Amino acid sequence: MQDLKGCACTGKSLPRLLRPAILSVLVKGGSHGYAMIEELKGLSVVGDHPPDHTGVYRTLQVMEKEGLVVSDWDCPGSGAARHNYRLTPKGKACLERWKRTLDEYRRTIDMLLKSL
Amino acid sequence: MQDLKGCACTGKSLPRLLRPAILSVLVKGGSHGYAMIEELKGLSVVGDHPPDHTGVYRTLQVMEKEGLVVSDWDCPGSGAARHNYRLTPKGKACLERWKRTLDEYRRTIDMLLKSL
DNA sequence: TCTGCTATGTGATATAGTCACATATAGGAG
DNA sequence: CTCCTATATGTGACTATATCACATAGCAGA
Hints:
Two copies of one chain form a homodimer.
Chain A: H1 18-26, E1 31-32, H2 33-43, H3 53-65, E2 69-74, E3 82-87, H4 89-115
Antiparallel strand pairs in A: 1-3, 2-3
Helix pairs in contact in A: 1-2, 2-3
Chain B binds a DNA duplex through helix 2 and helix 3.
């Protein structure tokens, strides 16, 4: 399959949840940064503490360099131009890998909670 | 109670799991770095990927500066000297806070898994 | 003496996320 | 026309967390 070595989705570096959250929005169809930020507010990553918008834009840039997403410019007749993102096959593979990783996280957190 | 503002245990900065893992070992009784590392191998934070030992020592130093743990030197007749750590009341408060935070993480991860 | 286990640590680097700040279009209120 | 709000995107500097390479020291057994 794809080369995911060193990618955060392998769980190598106990990641935060921004990357899988972005992937979960994109898998439902292409979208742009601002719309994702609005959706992530609804998802509410821990309490009422949505992720910083700069982190979302920056993560999208990094994910594009890594080949997980591709983008094109959407210049509507009215309103600000926007960057439209779509998942690549590599991005979909990354997403599948995240399912396992998140499941492992959940089990680890369960173990921790039991021993606290 | 204690001033935990800005402390990672409030969940402010989607943390990794090293701090609560260390607290979970210490709450069972005082211990030293090496023993904690051995226990954390058993806990296996994600797959078979135990935390780096330098991170544990460094985190303990930081936690001592923050007043979550206190230490004294244990110089046994034979073997290398070791740093013995115990939880402080502030450390116990931090631990209690972590329970809520970890529970929130688990719920967030559950939500994410459902939407992937 | 050499190896391995116990036990502790520093220096440099990498990664992830936050805070303050900057830019631009467009619509409505005053 | 100006100000405010919403939409939309970003950079620079900083902080927090974790990893990699490397260093040290006691003691036990081959």
